[in-house]
Amino acid sequence: PRYTLVGNKYATCRFGQWDVPAPVCVKSGCSQLEEVKNSVNMTYHNNAWIVFFCLPGHQLIGSPVVYCDGSKWNSTVPGCHDSSAKVSTECDFEQPDLCGWKPDELHDFDWRRLNKKTPSSFLQTGPTYDHTYGKNGSGYYMYIESTGRIENETARLLSPVYDAELAKNGCFIFYYHMYGRSMGGLRVYQKPDRVPMYQLLSTTKRNNYTLFEQWGDQGNEWYNSVSMLSDVGDNFQIVIEGIRGNSFMSDIAIDDVSIQHGANCTKAMLEATTPPSVLQESCVGRCNLY
C-alpha cells in the first residue's frame, strides 16, 4: 500500500508560529501492538494509525495516538491507569487539555481553540467572543477555520468515553455559533463503543445516532441545543462534526458542552434559545470591509 498523509494539508504562519502541527505519512506493515487493558481504540488507514481512549475511571498515560511508518511504530502504546477522578461531563474549553476531548484522526481538518475573533471575522463569519465569558471576557471556544479548506470537508471532535449509566435520563447540552453567508453544517452524534466510526457516518445509518443537525447561516449569535441521550446499553462518546460550506465564510464555533440529567435537562429545554426561522437580511456591518 502507498503512504497516506494524516493531518492538516495546509498550514498558516501567524505571529511567527504555525497554526497547526505538521502532518505525518503513515503506512501499514508494523507488527501487532500489545493489548492495552481498560481501553478502547479506533484504527484507521489499514491499521497504520491507532487512537486510544481509556474507559471511565482510568487515566491515559502516554500518547493517545500511535502510528506506523511502514516498518516501525512511532512510540510505545499508552497505559490506562486506575483513577479516582471521574471523567469530566462538562467543558468550557478554557484549558488546553480540552477536558479529554480529542480530534478524530480520520477527518479532513481539526477544530481549533481560540479566545478572540476568528481571522475571517472582518468578512462576517465566526464569533468575536466565546459564550462562557461573553463580549467583555477573553474566554476560549472551539471553531473550524474554513479558509484554505474545500466544500464539504469535515472536522470532528470526540468526547472522552462516558459510562453507559450517564445516558439514562440524560441529555447533551452545548452552545453553537453559525454565522456566515456560505455556512455549512453542524452535526452531533452519540456513538456507542460497539459502533465503528465508518458505520456511524454512513448515510444509511447516520440518522440512528444523530442528536443534532443544523445547516446554513444562523446569524451572529450564540444558541444552545439540548438533546436527550439514548440508553444504548453501552459506553459511548459524543462526536461533534463541522462541515465546511461553499466558501471561507463558514466558520462554525461551539462552547460550553455538558451532559446533564433529569430536572437539569428539563430546565435547559425551557431556557433553550433557537435561531429565528427566517433571518432578516441587513446591510449593517456587511459593507465595512477593511
TrEMBL record:
MAM domain ranges (all copies): 89-267
Chain segments annotated as transmembrane: none
Record keyword Lipid biosynthesis present: no
InterPro entries xrefs: ConA-like_dom_sf, MAM_dom, MAM_domain-containing, Sushi/SCR/CCP_sf, Sushi_SCR_CCP_dom
Domain Sushi span(s) in chain numbering: 28-82
Keyword set includes Disulfide bond: yes
A GO cellular component annotation in the UniProt record: membrane
Domain of life: Eukaryota
Keywords: Disulfide bond, Receptor, Sushi
Protein known as: Scavenger receptor SR-C-like protein
Taxonomy of the source species: Eukaryota, Metazoa, Ecdysozoa, Arthropoda, Hexapoda
